[in-house]
Amino acid sequence: MHGQSSIIVESKDVEFYYSGEEETVWPALSGISFTVNQGEYVALVGPNGSGKTTLLKLFNALLIPSRGEVLVKGISTANEDTLPEVRRTCGMIFQNPDNQLVATTVEEDIAFGLENLALPSREIQNRVLETARLLGLEKLLKQPPHLLSGGEKQRVAIAGVLAMEPKCILMDEPTAMLDPAGCREVLKTVRKLNRERGLAVIHVTHFPEEAAGADRIVVLNEGQLIADGAPGEVLTNLPLLHSLGLRGTAAVELAALLRADGCPLPPQILHNRELVDSLCSLEQNS
Question: Are 69 and 100 in contact (CB under 8 A)?
């Protein structure tokens, strides 16, 4: 088990109403309690309007709970004095990287948050170069961000957050606007940071194949947490997913159709490779 000190984000019985709506409508979030540990990769899934983005914004203190409490490294997000520390600990990456790119060159963009922290210029320079190296952006440092591909822009947005040395990255559908190559590029980058740097990742996605790469999947519906478990447990629960208008991975869905047709496949197939291997071994044994 993880010790208390390894908890990065904790949500304690959180309820959230958008202003002016309290008591007159359903809350955007209700009774949300869970923790995310250092180094954990959590996918947050659910139908549109289920509260995923709202929850992410609560973890970054862009929103404050109406009831209950969000703690980031043990610090309440409701305390204005510690907001900068909360936002340094949990860096946010949005769906559209253009909303996050503010400077005239990639180098200036990565440095932007660091300059707001008033760090010495030598340290800013070192962090920018180190982060650019880590994300394969060295050759692009003098380029204007608006000339980059979607995947490159999203990597620059990640670099700007990463230079601040967060403990957790919050990602709101970061691949939704990318082509397949840009999508692979960004996910590969984030997984590498998660594994090699022990960064916690909370990733809102509507792609089951992306969620399948997480350590854990949390499912929201109508503002409530309705499932929390390993990908092999959550994404193979097709009755639950289909009832929410969601789906499993292509391999999960196809395996279910084949089983219904009498094919004796094992229950926990999640990825394409597992499906192919199972079908090959059935073929060999027949």
Answer: no
